[in-house]
Amino acid sequence: MAANSYALLQVVTKCSLQKPSRPTKLEHSRNPLSSTFKPILLRELDHFPNISLDVPKAIKDISFNLLEAFVDFTCEFVDQPLLPSKSNFAPVEEMIEGTTVGIVEGKIPDDFPEGVYVRNGPNPLFGGLKSTRSIFGESSHMWIEGEGMVHALYLNKENGGKWKALYKNKHVQTDSYNMEKDRKKPGFLPAIQGDSNAILLSYLLNLLRFGVTDKSLSNSNVFEHGNKYYSIAENHMPQEIDIHCLQTKGNWNILSGSWNRPFTSHPKKAPGTGELVIIGIDGKKPYMELGVISADGKKMVHKADLMFDRCTVCHEIGVTQRYNVIMNFPLIVDISQLVLGGQLMKFEKDGYARIGIMPRYGDANSIKWFEVNPCSVFHIINCFELNDEVVVRACEARQSVIPGPSSSINHFDKFSKWLKRETSSTNGDSHEFTKESTFSRVCEWRLNMKTGQVKEKKNIFGDEFVMEFPFINEKISGFRNKFAYLQVVESTEVSGSGFSKFGGIIKVHYEEKKTFNNMDEEDELIKSEYHLFPKNTFCSGASFVPKPGGIDEDDGWIITFTHNENENISQVYIIDAKKFTEEPIAIITLSSRVPYGFHGAFMPLTS
Questions:
Q1: In the record, which residues are listed under signal peptide (predicted)?
Q2: Which residues, at least 6 apart from 591, have a Cβ–Cβ distance to it below 8 Å?
Q3: How many C-beta atoms lie closer than 10 Å to residue 257's C-beta?
Q4: With pLDDT > 90 as the criterion, what percentage of the chain qualifies?
Q5: Most CB atoms closer than 10 Å: which of 111, 126, 211, 368?
Q6: DSSP for 422-487?
């Protein structure tokens, strides 16, 4: 499995990667033979006519109620059990008001910027995840399908320079969130993990009742563009949030008409122009499109069909000063496989893999493709230009473990077996990248734009740890970086719970090497430092906070949410990036538990 199950499972739930973008409202009266319906099922259905009927509202309501009665009669929602080892994956209640935090160990630096540290993550409604049982089999929601909740720590200085910290959380109010809250009970049937027949039925019943096949999650990331702030997951357009109170302001609909699909959880700002580069994938042609949004966020300035011949999962895009970096790897979405009892998403280990370098405003014909060894990549660390080369740094795994239809919805045992095999096969004295590895390690590709040559480096600082969720000083994005930071997987916790937990953070020194007597010069490893947390303390959403006026790339701090499972206490750690291995300079204890989640960011605020 890749370095953490979060990243793998997260992409699995984006079933809308094969669907058109969501309507702004959930309409249960949508015609099941409409253009929304056909892409979801087999392409062979395309020969059916596109029927549109003017059905009176009373008949629509009757049809909806009959479908609801059918679901209530045939499908039973049951709570999924949560083992003690996964207690901090459980949801928390939404806070009505923020709470002032008074417990601080150490000292927040005087030159730390005022702002908000915000992190996104799943927080399921109705007390936790559900499974459904019916005569067609069983299907189950996964943790990564929980409704998005943003957790925020506001750091401001009062008169006299004293720091004030305030914590609050709030659900992201997507269309499907509001619908289920109004219903006061679960509505969407699980449609990712379980028996094939049950999954297909879930797709169909969700579509007939709500006009869409799954929930809009908005639980993966947060970002800023054009002085506005957004929550995002790949199965929907972003939701704008008021960063000061976390209230959802609505879907980002400025792009209506110019962008008809969701887009990546990791949009990138183009160096120099500040434009936002995005990608979006679909299960029907065009499989992948790229867009460039103006720096003020008000218009789409460029869009291109990349002319892919398959629907490949691409969780992130890279940018350099002049180019877009596109990953076309063999993790494939194919609805026809699901109908045949296989996986909706499959890693084709013998399939082709390539990286495309595209001018910022280019088209499919302008892309220069570089063939690389088949692998799975979810997160890019950074990309930059160096002489004639484009350098791509990323987290790479040799294969991918993707949940799919099976006779049992208890997939955690299977994950644990894979993870135990991987951790037991990892040898700290060996620097070979195991071909069968499903954990991700840091890798680097150097792509020569003149000669077409590819230089590939794997596992560039050894096998001691595996890691994921990379981040850098965002001011360096698109330029040559000296440093990168990643969350370190706690292998014992992975194998014990089926979910990844992160017991530390690593700092990568790209321009410092460490060599061994039995290694060739070209195989030398790069230097790395580790900041490991106390036993049974794990982090999520780590982010780099640049020091105002800082000169060096690592002038700044690492900030992250942590949870001490022994004490059931959630905290925020602030670590000096230049004194990385030393104790945190500040630990802020929160008044509420913060469940594990995905990506975070620090947003400086001036008002």
A1: none
A2: 99, 101, 167
A3: 8
A4: 50
A5: 211
A6: HHHH--TT-----TT--S-EEEEEEEETTT--EEEE-STT-SS--EEEEE--GGGTTS--SEEEEE
Which tens digits make up the pLDDT trace of 102-144? Answer: 778 999 999 999 999 999 999 999 888 888 998 888 888 887 8
379 is known to lie in a ligand binding site: yes
Structural contact between residues 551 and 542, judged by C-beta atoms closer than 8 angstroms: no
Q: What angle do CA 357, 361, 365 make, to 5 degrees?
A: 55
Six-digit token pair at 502? 């992160």
* Helix (H) or strand (E) run with residue 171 in it: strand 163-171
Cβ–Cβ < 8 Å for 223, 229 = yes
Cα dist. 366→315, 323, 324, 359, 508 in Å?
22, 11, 11, 7, 33
3-state SS of 95-121?
CCCCEEECEEEECCCCCCCCEEEEEEE
Q: Are 91 and 65 in contact (CB under 8 A)?
A: no
Given a contact cutoff of 8 angstroms between Cβ atoms, the answer to whether 456 and 481 are in contact is: no
Residue 266 is labelled as binding a ligand: yes
Q: Is the model more confident about 261 or about 111? A: 111
The pLDDT value recorded for residue 408 is 40
Please report, in angstroms and rounded to a whole number, the separation of the first and last CA atoms in the chain: 44
- Condensed to tens digits (0 to 9), the pLDDT of residues 208-252 reads 888 888 888 899 999 999 999 999 998 888 999 999 999 999 998
151 is in an annotated binding site: no
The structure tokens listed for 358 are 């595209």
Residue 302 annotated as binding site: no
Residue type, 578: K
- Strand arrangement, sheet containing 163-171: 99-101, 163-171, 148-157, 115-122, 600-604
- Supply 294's token pair: 């103006």
